[in-house]
């Protein structure tokens, strides 16, 4: 890529004060672009710019702020294909899925442009009025991971900005370019300082979350980093939203055709090469249909076209970065010791970080691939006999993000879904994330809510005004 990308600080597109670093295309394993690297001084400037812009932005009419979100959506829509192509290059996902992510971004921006955190009257009785107002918090630090760099940014930016906050974004070091391209476009639409972007190679996150002028941290990433973010927020009792890792179970009930449900579960596990917080990460199947289900999933895995995401027809792209690729390989090697690999199992012998869809059966529950978040195109399939037993096994996890239940009898499937202790459980569907529906993790999968009205409120402070007429003594 010839174009030199820039950081966005205080309304200006600037070079990195600490030089630049390579961005690698995971389909080749080779650098294809340079990313500007922010200095600590630029981080301070970005926060100072966001702080300076806050009073005027917060005082702007909410309809005007919403309209600017609409303009961002329009500008993005005009360049969706360009964004999708860059997304494939830096992230690896097939172009169709990259287009899907970009269309999702438009949906999020437009869903929030009309949302308002209006005052609510809690009491109006005998002269006593109690009103809950919602005020913006100030500077929001947004920190994003590398699996969905664009949509996870929009899920933070849209509610933060429409409620009157300003933002400093720090994208993941391996997928910064689409965020910088968005910054370019935003610099022509938003007032200076309202949205700032700095990039790093993993050294500025802690400084940003610990910055005294950051009022709220909106973080999506691993549970391990999330714990550090929460600790850093504690020093000043900052507001924090954590969207962290997951180990979602898919529970298949015994009234479905194993072949038909196998396809859905497979797709839920393999989209974005399994690098989705709410991908199916372990599948539980009744003993009497276990063999047929495993056979069909293995067949689908063998059919997959694993290649560079920019090539037409590719169904599964590479794993996004070398570190994650090594981790997935390690989990597969460990699984080979304890279970049976029935598809995939060996990385492709070519440049880039390619692991074909890998299916493992007959693993014990304490295998690493069952207990840990694999975050790659690898699915363990586990057998069960009894529904209470499988619910307990699904819940035996430190994670609590999502999950799916599959059954013909919808009432029965819904009853099972109610017993899974995660933030979301989908019945007979997967990945049905919608900006109008709140999304949150339980247990170590997160804290607070993203999306929906509750997600909007996370960017505000509740402020109660409780008034009665003055009582003469
Ligand atoms: P990660 O935790 O390694 O990195 C996430 C971000 O945190 C990056 O921008 C990174 O530079 C930054 N960071 C690193 N150290 C930091 C520190 N000390 N303080 C502040 N920020 C710091 O995560 P990842 O590997 O990029 O992403 C994969 C993880 O994200 C998976 O666990 C996945 O499940 C999770 N995820 C969760 C959701 C959700 O909504 N719950 C969505 C997508 C991904």
- Report the end-to-end length measured between terminal Cα atoms: 77 Å
Unreliable runs, pLDDT <50, ≥5 residues?
none
User: What's the CATH topology name of the largest domain?
Assistant: Aldehyde Dehydrogenase, Chain A, domain 1
Approximately how much helix is present in the residues?
25-40%
Q: How many strand elements?
A: 22
> Which molecules are bound besides the chains?
nicotinamide-adenine-dinucleotide
Radius of gyration in whole Å, from Cα? 23 Å
Integer tally of domains: 2
What characteristic shape results from the CA principal axes?
A: globular
- Write down the overall mean pLDDT: 98
Structural class: alpha/beta
CATH superfamily of the largest domain, by name, is Aldehyde Dehydrogenase, Chain A, domain 1
Class of the largest domain in CATH? Alpha Beta
Give me the number of helical elements.
15
CATH-derived architecture of the largest domain = 3-Layer(aba) Sandwich
Organism: Croceicoccus marinus
Keywords: Oxidoreductase
Active site: 243
Domain Aldehyde dehydrogenase: 18-464
């Amino acid at each position: 890529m010839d174009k030199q990308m820039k950081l966005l600080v205080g309304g200006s597109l600037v070079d990195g004060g600490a030089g630049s670093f390579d961005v690698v295309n995971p389909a080749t394993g080779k650098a294809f672009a340079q990313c500007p690297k922010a200095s600590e001084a630029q981080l301070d400037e970005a926060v100072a710019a966001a702080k300076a812009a806050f009073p005027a932005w917060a005082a702007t009419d909410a309809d005007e702020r919403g309209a600017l979100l609409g303009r961002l959506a329009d500008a993005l829509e005009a360049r969706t294909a360009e964004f999708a192509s860059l997304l494939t290059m830096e992230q690896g996902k097939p172009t169709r899925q990259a287009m899907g992510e970009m269309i999702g971004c438009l949906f999020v921006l437009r869903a929030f442009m009309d949302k308002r955190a209006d005052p609510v009257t809690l009491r109006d009785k005998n002269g006593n009025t109690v009103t809950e107002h919602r005020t913006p918090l100030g500077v929001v630090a947004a920190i994003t991971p590398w699996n969905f760099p664009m949509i996870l940014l929009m899920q933070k930016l849209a509610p933060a900005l429409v409620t009157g906050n300003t933002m400093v974004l720090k994208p993941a070091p391996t997928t910064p370019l689409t965020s910088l391209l968005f910054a370019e476009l935003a610099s022509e639409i938003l007032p200076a300082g309202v949205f700032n972007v700095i990039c790093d190679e993993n050294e500025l996150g802690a400084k940003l979350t610990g910055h005294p002028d950051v009022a709220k941290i909106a973080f999506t990433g691993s549970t391990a980093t999330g714990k550090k973010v929460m600790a850093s927020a504690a020093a000043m009792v900052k507001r924090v939203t954590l969207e962290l890792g997951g180990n979602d179970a898919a529970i298949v009930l015994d009234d479905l055709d194993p072949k038909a449900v196998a396809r859905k579960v497979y797709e839920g596990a393999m989209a974005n090469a399994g690098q989705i917080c709410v991908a199916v990460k372990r599948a539980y199947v009744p003993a009497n249909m276990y063999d047929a289900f495993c056979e069909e999933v293995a067949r689908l895995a063998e059919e997959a076209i694993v290649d560079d995401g920019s090539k037409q027809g590719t169904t599964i792209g590479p794993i996004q970065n070398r570190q994650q690729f090594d981790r997935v390989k390690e989990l597969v090697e460990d699984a080979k010791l304890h279970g049976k690999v029935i598809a995939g199992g060996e990385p492709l012998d070519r440049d880039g970080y390619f692991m074909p869809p890998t299916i493992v059966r007959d693993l014990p529950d304490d295998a690493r691939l069952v207990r840990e978040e694999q975050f790659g195109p690898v699915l363990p399939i586990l057998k069960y006999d009894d529904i209470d037993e499988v619910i307990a096994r699904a819940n035996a996890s430190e994670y609590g993000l999502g999950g799916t239940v599959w059954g013909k009898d919808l009432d029965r499937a819904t009853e099972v879904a109610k017993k899974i202790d995660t933030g979301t459980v989908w019945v007979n569907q997967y990945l049905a994330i919608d900006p109008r529906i709140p999304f949150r993790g339980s247990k170590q999968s997160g804290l607070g809510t993203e999306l929906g009205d509750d997600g909007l409120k996370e960017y505000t402070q509740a402020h109660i005004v409780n008034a009665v007429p003055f009582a003469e003594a």
